Amino acid sequence: MLVRDVMSAFPAVIRTGADVRRAAELLSVSEVGHLMVLDADDRFVGQLAEDDLIRALVPDLDGVLAAGATMADAFRVFAERGREVADRPIDPLVRREAVTVGPDDPLAKVAVALLDRGMRRIPVVVDGTLLGTVSRADVCRAVLYHA
Amino acid sequence: MPDVRILVAITDLVGGRTAERTLLLPVVLGRQDGAGTLTLPDPEVSRSHARLELVEGEVVVTDLGSSNGTRVNDEVVTRHVVGPTDVLRLGRFELRWRAPGAQRDAVTFVGTAPAPARPTVSPARVVVATAERTNRVQGHELDGFLSTEFGLLPAAPPLLSLPESHAAWDEVAAELPRRYGGLHLRRVLENLPELDTSPDALPDDALYRASTILGTFAHAYQYLTTDPPSALPPAVLRPWTAVSTRLGKELPSMSYTDLFLYNWRLRDPAGPRALDNMELLVPNWGNGAERIFYLVTTEFAMSLTPVLAAMVDAQDAVLREDETEVGEALLRVLDGLRAATQVIYPQLDPNPRGRHFLDQVVWAKTVGTAGVPVVDGAPSPSGTAQPHVHAIDAFLERAEYGSLVGRQSTYLAGHFPRHWTEFVAALREVSVRTFVEQRGRADLRGLYNAVLDAYLGDRGWMGLHRIKAYGFLEVAFKVGRQVTTGARFTGLFKDRTWDAVDGELALVREERRPPVGRPVVFGRPVRGRLLADAEGGGWTCHLQLDVSGQGVYHLPGDRLGVLPENDDDLVERTLRALQATGDELVPLTERWRQAVRLRAGFSDDVDVLPLRTLLRFARIRPMDRPVAKRLLALSASGALGRVVDARMEDQWELWDVLNLLHAGGFDVTRLWAGHVEESLAALVPPETFRLYSLAGATKPGEPAETLSLVVRGLGYTSARSAFSTARERRGTASHFLRRMATDPRHRNKRLSLRIVPAPRFRLPDDPDTPLLMFAAGSGVAPFHGLVAAREERPAVLYVGARTAGDLDLADFDAAAARGGFTLHTALSREDATLTFDGTAHTPSAGTRARVPDLIAAHDPWDLLRTARVYVCGRTDFAVSVIEALKEVARPRTDPDEFVRGLVAEDRLQLDVFTTYGGHAQQGRMLEVSELVRHPATAAAPWMAVSGKVYDMTEFVHLHVGGPHIVLNNCGLDGTDAYQRVLHHAHAEIDAQLGMYEIGTLRRLRFGGRWGVVPTAEGLRFLSLDDLFTTWVRTIYLVVGMQNALVADVGFADRAATGPDDPGELTPYKAQFLVEGHRRFLVSYLDGLLDDDLRTLWRLTAGYCADDVDLRTADRTLAALAETAGYRQVRGVAAHLKDLVGQVERGGRAPSALVPACRLLAAEDVRLLSEITLALRDGILAFEEHEEAVREAAGARLVAAVEAAFTAVTGYYARLATGLAELGIVVSEGLPDVADAPVPEDGGLPGHGGALDR
After folding, report:
1. What ipTM is given for this predicted complex?
2. Which residue from B225, B232, B516, B1225 lies 20 to 30 Å from B687 (Cα-Cα)?
3. Residue A51 C-alpha, separation from nearest chain B C-alpha, in angstroms
4. In CATH, what number is assigned to the domain containing residue A83?
5. Low-confidence ranges of chain A (pLDDT < 70)
6. Which residues of B touch A62 (CB under 8 A)?
7. Which residues have C-beta within 8 Å of that of residue B1147, sequence separation ≥ 6?
């Protein structure tokens, strides 16, 4: 079985330069964990994961200490950072060296990558053009549902 | 071989007479009488002097290591062809030969043609003979000690003095111990005259003594103070270098010979070379630890001499293809190894009441460092330099030397003298192993494997060494000196460096060869007798197993390991629970493959088993804790989780746990149909050998034909509780043996058996020592053997049984009839007693009694004072007997001291076993907060092992490895240390600990609570369970530090240097307190504060309080570092070292030095106990509130950690004030203790050189 047989052809995408609030909207509407990121010329750039969005909100230790150094401060900072981060561009959060597959790769290869790299979704890319994505759910459906 | 006869003319050169004899070749020429020997009565002729034999048609003479040599035409020869015209001379006899009835120049053969020639004298024997002769001719042993009589030790005892010209060295050597206490030693050595070391001034035969003395000088100079000097004085270094060069060393160094093999003298020159008759040739510190450690090591080497001889005999016998003699020689190797490891080696006794007390703390500070080379790159006299190990390794064909220790071994062997190198190489030339493998004789194989086991096994030499070394290493790393523990121990206390070293020792054992064939004996049941109890359904079974022809040698008191099988009923139940037929094939894991090899009828390459067979061999009753945890991980079953949490899994068996899981929806067929990692073979371990005391004795030196056992049936009902249901349960092994004994279907069954030596349950060496024995139930078993092997000397046995019918009296009737033996029976279910009527013990009227009642009534004090006391039975029986013996002692002496004395004198021998003893929800529940109040310093030290708590008050005095290692692990969880030395795997040791069990650690319930905490990586999820674990780990760490520190400062009150009063804090000892304080700050306290307490603070504050400033701990520590008191305390080590240096250079000891050292030690200990106390309050809060701790006592937890920091602040302030009151003012310029340079790591304590050379 090949990637092209099971991939989702219409992935949720966002363009570089978009702000974080827009990304949050797309994530919430599309109900996926990752947005595919394209540049102004529609070339594939990388991925934006909801984990990374959340992580950007959680203060690190220095952040906690700077904010007053109590746990209450840490929890307050989390909420405040939402307002602060929302208008910033997504660009620093984009994972640019993404692992990709081609449409003619065997599905087993994808399955191993998903597991070993702890990924939930892999972009299908040919020559910088995004053709779709393969998620864990796609693999399960293709291989197990009809088994 | 054909019969070959020659006619020999023997001329007695003294009497002038000539006689002719016909000799059958081969023949031994010697002073002794005997078959195959031509007796030559002359004191100059050795008992077995030479051998004449036919090799390739020629008559060849071989010298057998004679004292005075064999000559052919007046040339000394080792092995030489003797023609008819040659003259052979031995002592005052000349021999010429000719063929009988033929011309003088021809050999005739009587019988068939000669066999193809093959040497019949092993290369090793030739090397020994050559070495003996060369050493004798040269008049010195500089090419290496090697002789049949003295093995690898000097044939001539070490010289007691040097030539008159070198008397100055002798004089200074004699006064070394006196020069330590006041630190005068270096000046004495610096002022030595430089003496001539040329061969004219210092002859060859004086070299070894000079080398030992000069090496001791160099090491004493180097290690007198905790900080080494920059260089050795010329008066020591020059002659030491010269003498080392003459001995063939590339660099001046202390060799194994200098330190051990040539460092002894006999008290009575005519007496034996044994510990009690020896003193050190050149004592250094003159303390007990030095004397015992060196001399026992030396005596150990001496005791291996018969082993070396027997190895050479075995190789000769292999060349002669003489199976009988190979067997006899292997038996001598076995006996020799056992005697050395079980009699000589244990004289290294860390028991303070023992006759040869070796104080581990004194050892670590003084002797333990002595071997670390002074000169960079020089070899060390570590254990791997011991030549015997190399010889035995060669004989047993060790092929691998790749491990760290192995590489060090090879490196050190490169420095051997010529004879040793040749001997070790020669031993590799004949393979006894191949001979044993090819002959296919089970008895030879059994013997060969027994030799391997005695050398490498867990209870053999290497196993015992590793356990003993572990104890010494742990103590040494905790209290050791900077010089040995420098680089490796600049790490923190909790790094447990000694575990890494121990791991290396374990690896080396793996480099030796595995057993030949399967390391197991097969026994066929031949006779069984079942004695059923009159009431209650209990039974006792007397069983005999046929093991003839397999080379099984055992001593009375030894144990038999039996590999049991499960019964059909249990297997069927388990199959039903698995919903399987039993025919399913299960792939085996490596562990299972090893186990199946031990079963009769299975070949070495079995890699699958039918499920039914697997279950027959598996440990499935009762449930093991690790199996329960693995099943829990697979099933995530809440019900099983509760059972495991309550430590109640042992109330279950595999089949009913499977039913429980199935009821909860778990698919049990996964365990045989599913993935291989989930299969039963991966889940359930194979059964292991269960131990039973052997009942019976064999004649010394003869293999056993049958083995006898007394087995008590085990049956009980599991608990009806919230975590288990009431069911009838059976002991696996006892019921297996009962089936084997009584069911005729099993007549031809072959049971897998293994002899397990019990060196601490033995008849005394002195047959006149009376025996006082106590047994109950099947504990009577070993006494059948002890009594049968005993001569007609006083021996009294008290036996507790239910009824007279439980006892098999034949052995006891026979012993009583021989005389000296008395049997007292205490019957608990029968109003009777047994009396001896001259031929047998017969029942007569009496009253029910238990053994302790009889002890009280008989008051056997007189016997108790001199007898060796044996106790065999269940733990509760052993406890009751020891209590009763204390009552006997009480009117006469301190009863506790009396029992401790019995142990120290090796007069109390325990063989204790557990049976089902209730479950974890019974008995006393104990808390961590209570445990930590019982550290080493407590009146009653406690230790936790695998969830159970033991009161170690008495055990401290009984522990074979000495008190330190036990005390180090008190007040905390000692499971790691306990399992490291395999105590958990040795049922007999585990059972002994069981005598002191006082309760179970309560498991707290945290109900899945969790929180968010700050860490260096940001905010993280933390379960309340994990937070509590961090607390417990931290407090155990502090308690462990406290234990170690108390042992360390205890050195101040030990006898460290010969003539000084142990109570006096000499400058020599004071410097160790300074060094201890330095280490306390750097290795203990800094790590604790920067890492453990800081982490504990952050996690606790983060979890418990939203409003606490997380920087508080950092600020407290930063503020502390700014105080003047802090800088004073941090600089005082350097300051005091300066004072010590002044003393060392000849100044007077400042009056403040000693009180300052004492103050440091006292305050360091006090701080750790204050931190413990502070943290304990947090532990108490967890115990009181469990899952509600955050809401109910969050602030208290935070306060508890803060209190620990407050204790540290108080410590610095108090110590600074105290030092100021003593007039000690540290100048601001002195470096912080943590910045002071630490010398390069020289090596390992007791081991000499660094491992990774």
Report:
1. 0.80
2. B516
3. 14
4. 3.10.580.10
5. 147
6. none
7. none
